[in-house]
Amino acid sequence: MVVHRAAFRDTKLVYVGRANKRIRYPWGRSRIVYIGTTTKGARRVASSAARKGEDLLFEHGIWEVEFSVMTCSKLRSVATWKKLERALLIKFRETYGAVPQGNFQGKKIRWHDEKSYFSDKRLDAILQALG
Length: 131
Prior knowledge:
With 131 residues, the protein is α+β, with helices and mostly antiparallel strands. Helix content is 36%, strand content 23%. It has 4 helices and 3 strands. It has helices spanning 6-9, 42-56, 80-96, 120-130; strands at 13-25, 28-38, 65-70. Strands 2-1-3 form a 3-stranded antiparallel β-sheet.
């Protein structure tokens, strides 16, 4: 796990787990295996990497899971990091036909107001860059 200084600038983060190989989903392949959020900063990412990594590393051909941290601008009385996680999960499901392999929640979530904060084009760019 590589931790950069940006992970310590904010405690409210979204993190994405990427495997060393592409995982098969119903509508395509992606390296993304987990999308999560935390309010406790990089410490939570490290514990989640250990917990989720244990489950994911026993899949055939996966010997490495890398976690990337991202954040978004803050808005008054809006939990933007939660909206970013939700938007990424929905967009991932729309693109690949299922939520990432390590996610248990998010299979039936629908768009609410996330599109007013994040554009489809930007969400697609994030998923393409990571996956």
